[in-house]
What does this fold into?
Amino acid sequence: MIKVLLDLDTGIDDAMALAYALGSKEIDLIGITGTFGNVYTEEGVQNVLNILNMCNANEIPVYAGETHAITKDHFTRLEVSARIHGENGVGQVEIETSPKKKETQSGVDFIIKSVKKYREELVIVTTGPITNLALALQKAPEIKDMVGKVVIMGGALTVPGNCNAYTEANISQDPEAAKYVFESGLDVTMVGLDVTQRSILTNADTQRWRETGSVAGRTYADMVDYYISQHDVAIKGCYLHDPSAVIHAVHPEYFVMLAMHMTVTTEGEAEGRTIGDPSKLRDPNPNVKVCIGVDSQTLVNDLNEVLLTLFKQN
Ligand code: RIB
Ligand code: CA
It folds into this structure.
């Protein structure tokens, strides 16, 4: 079993990533940190608590992380985020409020504590802006040589961004944090739009979840149907951004990867662009693996199998 810490801006596809982590027999989910992005940090944390309660997983601790980007003093949620994920972040679907509260420790401190406790056993999966991890590395630089692996959903190398031609949403919300993590020397895998837009989930899949008849199955089906309705009809479904990252943590063999030194452009027209670091072209030890291909059918089948098992029990 792999020990996984999830850092989420929950968000509908974040919620799918969470369900996969809960349902996978190969993942020991040690805790969740919340960040800003699709929603404000506190809303995302509450969404996670409610989902854990719905899935009978209240033993998993939840921590609130940062509320804005490293170089900013506030965060304003984008209108497009409210449209794609719904005002409440979970597609306007009502989920019973959890009786459980978040932990008092900060998300950044929980990351530091977890790395020191589990060291190379730990895989950190981030599905929002990478602010919490960047700040953990800045606060406790010694953890850099301890972390097992970091998988981030973010960036775009071989395809255009989804905010503009250059940048993907998670990177665009805190380019400085992403640059810091990419250049930190950590073992980082980038699961970006290059692969997440190749895997499509359809209404036929969500219908199978609904037919489990369980509260979680029906709730997730309604949430993801909302998310699908916000995608271009030509896609005939929704992209699997955040689930692809958590699936990578346990099944890297589904992906084709390119080893590179990555950096992030932090100013000008191309701000937020994930690109090879020109100053390290001749450096023989690239530390970032960029996913550029994926066995989409296997990934979608795996996601459905794990989620159906979870929903049949909840
Ligand atoms: O660009 C896709 C990413 O932006 C996903 O993590 C989604 O949840 C949003 O945060
Ligand atoms: Ca996300």
In short: The chain has a mean pLDDT of 97. Residues 2-313 form a domain with the Inosine-uridine Nucleoside N-ribohydrolase; Chain A fold (CATH 3.90.245.10). Residues 9, 11, 13-14, 37-38, 127-128, 242 surround calcium ion (ligand 2) (CB under 6 Å).
